[in-house]
Amino acid sequence: MDTVEITGYAASVMVAISLMMKDIIWLRWLNFIGCSLFVIYGVAITAWPVAGMNAFVACINIYHLIKIYRARAARDHSAVS
User: Fold this and answer.
1) In which region does residue 44 sit, left (phi positive, over 0), alpha (psi from -120 to 50) or beta (all else)?
2) Pairwise CA distance, residues 43 & 41, whole Å
3) Are the C-beta atoms of residues 41 and 7 closer than 8 Å to each other?
4) CA-to-CA distance for 73 and 16, rounded, in angstroms?
5) Percent helix, percent strand, percent coil in the chain, to nearest 5
6) Measured distance CA(23)–CA(81) in Å, rounded
7) DSSP type of residue 45
8) Which residues, 6+ apart, have CB-to-CB distance to 57 below 8 Å?
9) What is the pTM of this model?
10) What confidence tens digit (pLDDT) does each residue in 34-72 have?
């Protein structure tokens, strides 16, 4: 088993684990890591649909994480004021 194959398996495991999370923040972070590994894997095996779709999903995860953290910061800030 080579590094590329290990990367693909690690990506699969991360995405699978992420889907078992109850906490949306953990889900988004683990899914982001899995998608990022799939991007690396897709590029390594020149599977552009795999790399492209997972890059898109990774961006969606980052977008939602930013929204979550901004909402939390606004809520914490308003509680202090």
Assistant:
1) alpha
2) 5
3) yes
4) 29
5) 85, 0, 15
6) 28
7) T
8) 31, 35
9) 0.91
10) 999 999 999 999 999 999 999 999 999 999 999 999 999
